[in-house]
């Protein structure tokens, strides 16, 4: 294995490229094998919200991992800016949850009185104050909750920056190169086997192939990862910036009527997203797009007359317990997983990359990663 690379990573989404960047920055020889172009799958389709308590569900172990990742985000994007010159539009002006029914209001009040409120920096906001913060919200607000510890990033720019930074740090990214499986001998990994049949030798291999991770051959037991489809659309708020008011329809992330509205720096308003278990059925559907439009315009009625500029769909990598799989394979030395990040892979990228780099380079398995091992899905005789 003298000509073997230190770490081969299968998949150049946000997870694979963050890890490649972190490893290469620390001096490791890294090869990323990507069948398409970097960051063009779930990473490209995402909304870019960094919500430790929202997108990351309510599992305490995941919240802990997500909070840690959020704490690392400012340093993560600062390093990318320094190394690539790309501003990934990291913004920290919070998220406004808006309740229009008594039941929704009750939920927000419960959250505001609950144990996470201080950590969330979550404060109830009266209806009039909510409309002062976001004047174009529909009338009829019961109450609102402003969550300060809820940030955002432009995930498409992030994908570009990560691939550029990884390459600049010395990682090799082979695009247009599908991997068929893992090569192994004597109970340990020896490399990756491309679909062409060629084997690229590597001392360690990380599977970061998103929703397709379970298709990689040679894994000791089937990987329980499946696609969870999400549809989104974008409305062009620039028409308004150029118009009489000079302001965009919203200025921070707003959640209400079941949907999220996410402002981008170029004036676009993203609307997301559906959550569908329909396999790999690609593309937006009339039903999905109709739901997004109805939810968005019920929340901010002025959106209804602005240009609809894009619709898209992507596949979140799901697992049976909705938690990611991050860590080593106990049955095949040198094989690691970094997949199954479902609704929070953009948020979890820094902590995944940094703790996994500690594991791969120093053999240290961080306490934070313990709940996310593949062992939890392994049947033992
Ligand atoms: C609509 C939507 C909204 C979302 N919103 C958010 C959000 O607001 N915040 C958040 O944190 N997360 C969000 N997510 C989730 C987030 O996008 C994912 O968790 C994250 O992008 C997963 O990254 P990944 O690198 O594991 O997968 P991907 O980005 O899918 O990358 C996997 C890569 O592996 C490659 N690959 C697959 N198989 C092979 C093979 N055999 N050989 C070589 N390469 C292969 C693919 O081509 C792809 O480039 C959202 C997702 C969707 C779909």
Reported for the largest beta sheet, the result is:
8 strands, mixed
- Helix content range of the residues, please? 25-40%
Instruction: Name the shape in a single word.
Output: elongated
Q: Which small compounds were modeled alongside the protein?
A: flavin-adenine dinucleotide
The CATH topology label of the largest domain is: FAD/NAD(P)-binding domain
Order of helices and strands: EHEHEHEHHEHEEHEEEEEHEEEHEEEH
Termini Cα gap: 33 Å
Whole-number mean pLDDT = 94
Unreliable parts: none
Walkthrough of the structure:
With 381 residues, this protein is an alpha/beta fold. It folds into 2 domains: 5-85 and 155-224 and 321-377, FAD/NAD(P)-binding domain (3-Layer(bba) Sandwich), CATH 3.50.50; 95-150 and 227-318, D-Amino Acid Oxidase, Chain A, domain 2. It has 10 helices and 18 strands. The strands form 3 sheets. Strands 1, 2, 8, 9, 10, 11, 17 and 18 form an 8-stranded mixed β-sheet that branches. A hairpin with a 2-residue loop joins strand 9 and strand 10 (188-194). Helix 3 crosses helix 10. The chain is elongated and about 65 Å long. The structure holds flavin-adenine dinucleotide.
Topology:
Layout: E1 5-10, H1 14-25, E2 30-33, H2 42-45, E3 49-50, H3 60-84, E4 95-99, H4 102-113, H5 117-120, E5 122-125, H6 127-133, E6 143-147, E7 151-152, H7 155-168, E8 172-174, E9 179-185, E10 188-194, E11 199-207, E12 226-236, H8 238-241, E13 253-256, E14 259-263, E15 268-272, H9 286-299, E16 308-318, E17 325-328, E18 335-339, H10 345-362
Parallel strand pairs: 1-2, 1-11, 2-8, 4-13, 11-18
Antiparallel strand pairs: 3-7, 4-6, 5-6, 9-10, 10-11, 12-15, 12-16, 13-14, 14-15, 17-18
The structure holds flavin-adenine dinucleotide (FAD).
């Amino acid at each position: 294995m003298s000509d073997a690379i230190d770490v081969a990573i299968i998949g150049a989404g946000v997870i694979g490229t963050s890890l490649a960047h972190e490893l290469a920055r620390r001096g490791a020889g890294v090869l990323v094998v990507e069948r398409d172009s970097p960051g063009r799958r779930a990473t490209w389709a995402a909304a870019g919200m960094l919500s430790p308590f929202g997108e990351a569900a309510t599992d305490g172990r995941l919240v802990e991992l997500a909070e840690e990742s959020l704490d690392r985000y400012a340093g993560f994007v600062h390093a990318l800016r320094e190394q690539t010159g790309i501003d990934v539009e990291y913004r920290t002006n919070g998220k406004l949850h808006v309740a229009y029914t008594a039941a929704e209001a009750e939920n927000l009040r419960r959250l505001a009185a609950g144990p996470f409120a201080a950590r969330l920096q979550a404060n109830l906001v009266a209806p009039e104050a909510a409309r002062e913060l976001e004047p174009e919200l529909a009338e009829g607000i019961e109450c609102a909750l402003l969550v300060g510890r809820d940030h955002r990033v432009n995930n498409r720019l992030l994908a570009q920056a990560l691939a550029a930074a990884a390459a600049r740090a010395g990682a090799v990214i082979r695009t247009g190169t599908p991997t068929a499986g893992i090569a192994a001998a004597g109970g340990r990994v020896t490399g990756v086997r491309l679909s062409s049949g060629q084997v690229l030798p590597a001392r360690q291999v990380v599977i970061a192939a998103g929703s397709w991770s379970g298709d990689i051959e040679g894994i000791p037991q089937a990987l329980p990862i499946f696609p969870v489809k999400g549809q989104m659309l974008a409305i062009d708020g620039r028409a308004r910036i150029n118009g009489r008011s000079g302001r965009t329809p919203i200025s921070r992330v707003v959640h209400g009527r079941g949907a999220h509205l996410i402002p981008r720096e170029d004036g676009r308003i993203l609307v997301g997203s559906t959550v569908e278990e329909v396999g790999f059925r690609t593309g937006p559907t009339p039903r999905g797009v109709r739901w997004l439009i109805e939810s968005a315009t019920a929340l901010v009625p002025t959106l209804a007359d602005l240009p609809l500029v894009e619709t898209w769909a992507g596949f979140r990598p799901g697992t049976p317990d909705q938690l990611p799989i991050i860590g080593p394979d106990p049955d095949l030395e040198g094989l690691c997983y970094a997949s199954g990040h479902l609704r929070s892979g953009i948020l979890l990228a820094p902590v995944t990359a940094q703790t996994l780099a500690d594991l791969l380079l120093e053999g240290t398995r961080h306490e934070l990663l313990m709940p996310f091992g593949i062992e939890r899905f392994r049947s033992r005789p």
